[in-house]
Amino acid sequence: MRVLLTGAAGFIGTHICAQLADAGHDVVAVDAMLPAAHGAGAQLPADVRRVDVRDAVAVADVLVGVDVVCHQAAVVGAGVNAADSPSYASHNDFGTAVLLAEMFAAGCRRLVLASSMVVYGQGGYACPEHGAVDPLPRRREDLDCGVFDHRCPIGGEQIRWELVGEDAPLRPRSLYAASKVAQEHYALAWAESTGGSVVALRYHNVYGPGMPRDTPYSGVAAIFRSSLESGYAPRVFEDGGQMRDFVHVDDIAAANVASVGAGLDGFDAFNVCSGRPVSILDVATALCGARSDLENTAPIVTGQYRSGDVRHIVADPAKAAGLLGFRAVVDPAEGLREFATAPLRH
User: Fold this and answer.
1) Dist CA 61 CA 199 (whole Å)
2) Which pairing describes strands 205-207 and 246-248: parallel, antiparallel, or unpaired?
3) Residues 1 and 67 sit within 8 Å (Cβ to Cβ)
4) 332-339 and 220-229 helices cross at what angle (nearest 10)?
5) Which of 1, 11, 12 is nearest to 256 (CA)?
6) Using an 8 Å Cβ cutoff, are 235 and 300 in contact?
7) Angle, helix 332-339 to helix 280-289, in steps of 10 degrees
8) Which of 124, 137, 211, 281 reaches 20 to 30 Å from 22, CA-CA?
9) Digit-coded pLDDT (tens) for 101-129
């Protein structure tokens, strides 16, 4: 098939491009080359065309003959402050709306959309007395005292995290999350109005070679690696007990290839995760332990916290396995060990 891949020069996009080509697809690779993602003055790769998805004319040109669009282009990260909101709305939401309009005009009715776990908000929890509950936001006075876990909103019992399924409510808690929810909603409305097909892939914590370093918009794994590259111990917020699912970029690419070939109808969303939960402290410890050049380096647990941070969010991989035939193959224990010395993007 002929596949239009947006964001093709980015961290995830380069891996998807390679796997799509290996699978025999004809890839039309485009990227806006935003400085925030690639650095000032970054060179456009020879096999990638410079296209901003907000430019309807340019998008229409590259959509000629395309069977399916794999849309990775986005401004990522939780955001530094509210001043980032126009950038998220412009690149992520307006850009997706332009892309969908031009797909309709071109007669292309299949989309694979890069979404994110952040659409779920604070994740899933259960109380031993009251079952599934939606905890209240953590109180500043508790956080200041080092009490980081949620309590049951009914009886105050300590609650446990649970796997989040795709039918969980969408409750964004950051600017980036709000933009990803909006992308999904635009895509859902487009699918229903056009009869198109949308596979929304909700990526969990992605890591792997080629991640950008030294940027506040990177994922936590890259932030820890950036610290180690600079000779400093990773600094872990709260008590390090936050549970996450870390998924290797090669598995992210494989999920996209599976989605391109799935042939599903309508709109459907899928968790893309390893299925092997790990704590943030364990991630930092694994990265430190794999660096023979930094002996006796250990993570620093700061006890500090950031307002709005999510305590636990861990995904259920069953739906992707059942409908897409996708299962992550990289065990985080091995993947993180390799990532400790993998090259990063400057």
Assistant:
1) 23
2) parallel
3) yes
4) 40
5) 12
6) yes
7) 50
8) 211
9) 999 999 999 999 999 999 999 999 999 99
Q: Which of 296, 274, 273, 275 is nearest to 285 (CA)?
A: 296
Residue among 324, 186, 182, 170 nearest 255 (CA): 324
| 206 token code pair | 């992605």
Following CA atoms 260, 261, 264, 268 in sequence, which dihedral angle do they give, to the nearest 10 degrees?
-40
Q: Report helix, strand or coil for 278.
A: strand
Let me know the angle formed at the C-alpha of 327 by 9 and 183, rounded to the nearest 5 degrees: 50
Neighbouring C-beta atoms of residue 285, cutoff 10 Å: 18
Q: Torsions phi, psi of 203, nearest 5?
A: -65, 140
* Separation between Cα atoms, residue 258 and residue 136, nearest integer Å: 37
Taking the mean position of all CA atoms in its chain, how far away is CA 168?
Answer: 17
Q: Answer whether 0.85 is exceeded by the pTM.
A: yes
Question: What is the Cα–Cα distance from 275 to 4, expressed in whole angstroms?
Answer: 29
Give the C-alpha separation, 182 to 96, whole Å: 9
Amino acid at site 5? L
What does the alpha-carbon distance between residue 325 and residue 137 come to, in Å, rounded to a whole number?
A: 36
Distance CA 247, CA 249 (A): 7
Give residue-wise pLDDT tens across range 156-212: 999 999 999 999 999 998 899 999 999 999 999 999 999 999 999 999 999 999 998
Own/partner long-range contacts of 19-25 (Cβ < 8 Å, ≥24 apart): 19/250, 19/253, 19/254, 19/256, 19/257, 20/70, 20/256, 20/257, 20/260, 23/257, 23/260, 23/261, 25/1, 25/260
Residue type, 105: A
Strand duo 243-244 + 278-279: pairing:
antiparallel
Q: At what angle do helices 220-229 and 280-289 cross, to 10 degrees?
A: 30
